[in-house]
Amino acid sequence: MGRDMDGLTVRSTASPQLMVDAESAADDWVARLSVAGRVRDDAIARLHALMLRAARHQVGRMPEAGALGAARREEIVQSAADEATVSVLSRLGTFEGRSRFTTWAYKFAILHAGVEVRRAAWSNREIRLDDVPEPSETRTSAPEAFAEGRDLANAVRVGMAEALTPHQRRVAVAVLVDEVPIDVLAERLGTNRGALYKTLHDARKRLRAHLRAHGYLPAETSTEVNP
């Protein structure tokens, strides 16, 4: 037996027959997960087995997981499967049947496993919310191309310093320059992914406007203004 999650007893194993994705139609999954008693318990066990398989596959394909060690990877797989199972059960009412139920459910395991791996990989890494870095000195083979690229890089740096708010600038540098995973940054800043995506969207919009105003980008087209 697995650990209890919000009053739901989740089994960590299931027979091979129960792990076949195509054994039931989507409405059968939803129906079995929505009733009470042994039928629901068995359906949750099947669901958890599927979440384990999806989480283990996702962890195995992420390069960041390689340095975590086998024991830590297995902890992440189990945790992600547990969280994904709870997520699916809490969102049964949102399933619209546009895809197979298992395809829909797999996405939750993949998401949770990815978040867990990135958090673990960055757990001991410092995130410096610095100002805009200096442009790179990497040269191209053509002096003209290097000069143009350097000029644009400086314009972007000035634009980020002048057009963005301090918060927008810190988030943009962390995500776009330092490549900090957005879910990791959200956790460090005590916010959520949605808020950071909104911050990045607004920052990009301000930066594009700044570059257009200074002649580094063409003027907005009617399609961009009225999509």
Structure notes:
The chain has 227 residues and is mostly helical. It folds into two domains: 4-122, no CATH class; 143-225, Arc Repressor Mutant, subunit A, CATH 1.10.10. The chain is 62% helix and 2% strand. It is built from nine helices and two strands, in the order E-E-H-H-H-H-H-H-H-H-H. The protein has a two-stranded antiparallel ribbon. A hairpin with a 2-residue loop joins strand 1 (4-5) and strand 2. It is elongated. The model is unreliable at 1-24 and 222-227 (pLDDT under 50).
Structural class per helix/strand content? mainly alpha
The Rg value, from CA coordinates, equals 23 Å
Distance between the termini: 53 Å
Uncertain regions spanning at least 5 consecutive residues: 1-24, 222-227
What best-fitting shape do the alpha-carbon axes yield?
A: elongated
Q: How many strands in all?
A: 2
Topology:
Layout: E1 4-5, E2 8-9, H1 26-34, H2 38-60, H3 70-90, H4 101-122, H5 143-163, H6 166-177, H7 182-189, H8 193-213, H9 222-225
Antiparallel strand pairs: 1-2
